[in-house]
Amino acid sequence: MKFDAYKELVPILDGMRAKGELEYTKDAPLALVSSFRIGGPADFAVWPYTRAALLDVVIALRRLGIRRDVFGNGSNVLFADEGYRGVAIFTTKMNRTVLRDGILWADAGASFTGLAVRALQEGLTGLEFAYGIPGSVGGAIYMNAGAYDGEIAQVCRETTVYDPAQALLGGISEIGGDAQGFGYRTSAFQFMEGAVILGGKFKLKPGDPAEIKAKMDDLMARRRGKQPLEYPSAGSTFKRAPGYFTAKLIHEAGLKGAAVGGAQVSEKHAGFVINRGDATAKDVLTLIEQIKDRIWQHFGVAIECEVRIIPER
Fold first, then answer.
1. Euclidean distance between CA atoms 31 and 193, whole angstroms
2. Do residues 214 and 132 share a domain?
């Protein structure tokens, strides 16, 4: 059935590509689009240029019964070695940012760091914490991304989302305030089956550009000094355990530098599992389980992986 569905999908994608609405690749190696530099091929990888094109693809895939997942720039994802049986959609070509009536609006695929730079250019403060976070705006909203005492929940006024459960009503809605359900590394969008974040609106405050720039530079310097940015990774591997600093637990358990194949607990920051160059997804997952087991055995603390595993286990 999938073969027949793909036979119908290809002309749709070809037509949209001919109109300049998207790019797509068959048997796309996901290691090339993942910050971990790990992952086998996807049956198809698609890069829409606009919200309308993204929705057209999502609706077509739903009609054809083809699996799909939507990603930003693959910065918080571990793709399986076997690849992805379906259509992986990446939003990075949807990257507009607009300042309108004091609200900074951004497409889901806009760079989160780029949005912080745009805020600086407009003399707006509140997004300094985002500078250096490698994800997209959509991914940041989905995860309620944060760092250095800042997080999306503090600045995201409203999220535009497509919800297939509301398709008969048009499917697109603006969800704002507490309805976004932001919590520590979570949001309401994680629990909306099949939902696709299209963009966000950010309410920021006027600030002094020199002070904003100084804070951004300081946070970037701290990142470079403490994080293993020289190696591929998916960022911080584990969520913060309530009442604990997870990286400190990993360090105290003697796991700094521990390795499985090409995957290693960073010797620079124990909260990061890095790819030393030839790691597989199996290496990473095995190491993650070893870390979780050791922390439980030593401290009786259950830690949770922050990285999105695709396909989900």
1. 26
2. yes
List the domain range (segments joined by +) for residue 193: 97-226
231 belongs to a structural domain = no
This prediction's pTM = 0.93
Which residue among 34, 35, 136, 236 is the active-site one? 236
Q: Which two tokens stand for residue 116?
A: 């912080």
Q: Is residue 147 part of a domain?
A: yes
The residue annotated as part of the active site, out of 51, 68, 185, 308, is 185
17 is catalytic: no
| Catalytic status, residue 158 | no
Residue 236 known to be catalytic: yes
pLDDT in tens, 210-241: 999 999 999 999 999 999 999 999 999 999 98
